[in-house]
């Protein structure tokens, strides 16, 4: 029997807000993991490095814990369908839980509010249909940091220090609007690597890399398997993200060069709604999205557990994104 972990999830949420904001300040980019994955599949160098950072963070977590993630409670066909819907939906709606729920809501984006509400709605419906009877009863609240929580907190200092150092380096000038100097390119890649690694540690601290905790939340309080940990993560991540964006985004110029690619405005359309709905169905089937998927891949590789299931899921995500 697992227990909700409000303190770990809240602190993990605070930790998620920091790399999301750091990547915006340093590179002028949204921290959107589905976007990283979709661009990496198409050969985008910066996206590949971001994906590597997330997987390496998972590997580090796996070595600390000396085990891998809990397996998904799905057969192969449902694993593939879940991944495909998550990939297709996140590509259509241009975001997932990190890109819309954390990065987008921090900017008070109407599109992200609508997308988040949509994928939570379809996620809840799908989880209720698929998992109403197969999840274990949840235990009482566990207010401790757990066996490895202090380690996850402590090791976040190192990637955070890298981001801080990059921020205070002299601003690199561009040779032109479209061409980076070589030092700028290298530093931008380091920013992607360090923020991805930091995000992985924070997500594992929150315990929301475990599919059953997400599914337990999506079942809502009407179920004995309800796990409120995701709510505590949101209480940590969202207020801090909003405050940081509101009061500390500076002149809207990437510190390490390159364009400021943070979207403003945008309208709600059928593509956004349909994509978010599909994403929510896939999310509600398996309980994972691209961030936990990449981190759990690293955990499985380091912990010596079977990575076949998560590789199949990530492959289906990539395929879904390639169709759009």
TrEMBL record:
The chain crosses the membrane at residues 6-26, 47-64, 76-92, 113-131, 151-169, 189-209, 229-247. It is a multi-pass membrane protein. Its main location: membrane. GO terms for cellular component: plasma membrane. Keywords: Cell inner membrane, Cell membrane, Membrane, Transmembrane, Transmembrane helix, Transport. It is found in: Cell inner membrane. Pfam families: DUF6691 (PF20398), Sulf_transp (PF04143). This is Sulphur transport domain-containing protein. It comes from Collybia nuda.
């Amino acid at each position: 029997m697992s227990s909700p972990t409000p303190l770990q999830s809240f602190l993990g949420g605070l930790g998620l807000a920091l790399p999301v904001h750091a990547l915006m300040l340093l590179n002028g980019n949204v921290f959107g993991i589905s976007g990283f994955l979709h661009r990496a599949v198409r050969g985008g160098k910066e996206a590949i490095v971001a994906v590597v950072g997330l997987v390496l963070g998972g590997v580090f977590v796996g070595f600390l814990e000396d085990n891998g993630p809990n397996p998904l409670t799905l057969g192969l066909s449902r694993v593939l369908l879940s991944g495909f819907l998550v990939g297709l939906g996140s590509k259509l709606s241009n975001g997932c839980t990190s890109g819309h729920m954390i990065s987008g809501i921090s900017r008070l984006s109407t599109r992200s509010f609508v997308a988040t509400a949509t994928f939570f709605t379809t996620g809840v419906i799908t989880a209720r249909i698929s998992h109403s009877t197969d999840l274990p009863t949840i235990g009482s609240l566990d207010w401790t940091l757990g066996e490895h929580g202090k380690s996850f907190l402590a090791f976040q200092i190192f990637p955070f220090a890298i981001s801080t150092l990059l921020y205070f380096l002299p601003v690199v000038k561009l040779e032109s609007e479209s061409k980076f100097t070589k030092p700028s390119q290298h530093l931008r890649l380091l920013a992607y690597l360090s923020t991805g690694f930091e995000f992985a540690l924070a997500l594992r601290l929150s315990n929301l890399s475990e599919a059953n905790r997400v599914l337990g939340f999506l079942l809502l309080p009407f179920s004995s398997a309800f796990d409120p940990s995701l709510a505590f993560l949101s209480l940590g991540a969202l207020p801090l993200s909003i405050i940081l964006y509101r009061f500390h985004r500076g002149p809207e110029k990437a510190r390490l060069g390159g364009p400021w690619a943070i979207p403003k405005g945008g309208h709600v359309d059928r593509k956004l709604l349909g994509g978010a709905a599909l994403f929510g169905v896939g999310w509600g089937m398996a309980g994972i999205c691209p961030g936990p998927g990449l981190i759990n891949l690293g955990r499985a590789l380091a912990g010596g557990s079977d990575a076949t299931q998560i590789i199949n899921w990530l492959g289906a995500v990539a395929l879904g994104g390639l169709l759009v």
